[in-house]
Amino acid sequence: xxxxxxxxxxxEDAFLILATLAAGLYVDVLTDIPGQTAVGIAVWLVxxxxxxxxxxxxxxxxxxxxxxxxxxxxxxxxxxGLYTYRLGNVPxxxxxxxxxxxxxxxxxxxxxxxxxxxxxxxxxxxxxxxxAVMGVDTLGAALFLVLAVSAIAMPRQRALYASTFVLSxxxxxxxxxxxxxxxxxxxxxxxxxxxxxxxxxxxxxxxxWSAR
Length: 212
Fold this sequence. Notes:
Strands 1-2 form a two-stranded antiparallel sheet. It has helices at residues 3-7, 11-28, 33-50, 56-79, 94-109, 114-134, 140-153, 158-174, 184-211, and strands spanning 84-85, 178-179. The model is unreliable at 1-6 and 177-184 (pLDDT under 50). By secondary structure, it is mostly helical. Helix content is 76%, strand content 2%. It is built from nine helices and two strands; from the N terminus they run ααααβααααβα. α3 packs across α5 (94-109).
């Protein structure tokens, strides 16, 4: 994680993002397309506000995050049908929501001790193994393997991946409007793997653009 990423977002912006996601998810499950569109517009406005102070590598990385995450949602949800949202679409707030989750991951990772990150990975491993043995979740082990490989291959991002795992799991338990037969923990692992990949590719693309 770069020095710029460690300093961003500011604490007050992180709290604003957290409040926006919590309120947006709560309102979304109570409404239909018009209400969902209004929530989406509000989330986009908050994202633009939070990004007001970004420049250079930060902005490029976050825009890359937006593009990669949106493409992934379109392919995995609308194309593959691996998971579906409540109204059968990709809500307007989901693309900026991915960027917000990455920003929250940066904020949490910068205050997370290494031992806490290792403890999170350990708990995820135990869950995945136990769930696979009991036959209640055959996908969790594969998803954890993706996460573990990412953490091993990019050790400087371990705190970010651990943070993303915790935030994704909390988001799912809070009530992300997904319809799935998998337990929430598996969905959290999926989003963790997705956001970890997004973070890695975003920073890689940003560095290459900066080099040019």
